[in-house]
Amino acid sequence: xxxxxxxxxxxxxVGDVGSLLAGSMVVIGDRLGxxxxxxxxxxxxxxxxxxxxxxxxRYVREWLGGQAATGYxxxxxxxxxxxxxxxxxxxxxxxxxxxVIGAFETAIGAAQATDRIADAFLTGEGIGxxxxxxxxxxxxxxxxxxxxxxxxxxxWIPALDGVEARLxxxxxxxxxxxxxxxxxxxxxxxxxxxxxxxFDPHGRxxxxxxxxxxxxxxxxxxxxxxxxxxxxxGSYDLIAFFDCLHDLGDPVAALASARDHLSDDGTILLVEPxxxxxxxxxxxxxxxxxxxxxxxLCTPNAIAQERELVLGAQAGEARLREVAGQAGLSxxxxxxxxxxxxxxELRV
Length: 348
What we know:
By secondary structure, this protein is an alpha/beta fold. It is built from 14 helices and ten strands.
């Protein structure tokens, strides 16, 4: 037994316990506006922060101590704490691609299914997306929305062969697995001449998406249907799958359905989590987060469906190319990537 290696691992596990608890602390800080109140304000005491946010000083004092211990805020001495500008952006600015606050909310929601997931390990049964805590649904939108805001119409769509010009002229677009409609509404704003239909099997998400479209003033060109990926109707020039194909129990059938509903020379835009083709390629912080989300959310959801092929969130480009080929989509090209996503163009 290597005693030093043993203690090094013990210290790592204690750190991971702190990280797990830090997730709850981040969600609390976000919900109560603690980070927003600290952003740009310089060093503050627990009393000052509590008065600013209308919260209890004794709770805030403990929260600040924990945040300083994990390095999220900086202890400035004399009972004062400061949120560095470089930390404020990921924790408060939901227009920035660096924003990670939604990932914490998703993780807290996913962790609430721990007991049910443990049971599923024994039974082999799945757990559907709609059966998770609402934090999962709102958190996922908040995590992925900054990527759509910053990259979807500025980078990803322009990288597709001839698609942006057609969107500007006016085409029919389907957004499969649209969730709360963040991607759909964003595209509708960018391309006012086109029409958009979002599909999602989760009824409450569809209701939220319809409200978001109405609030954004695009409901005349955007509609949402409660339907699974294999239940598409209509013909589309562009069909998008944003971070959802790996969640489906039969991704081959989902892509085949999309192929069947493409117009002549139509395009499929596939956005999936960043992943390498081999396990060793994914042994990094992003891979750790995605394997965790996949175990708690993505894999159980796929198993709850047809379970023909359970990809998981770390499928990688080679596996996705194989799935596309099985669905009759012979043209497969990586067009963009971010630290969190792989972006592909698929055609017949």
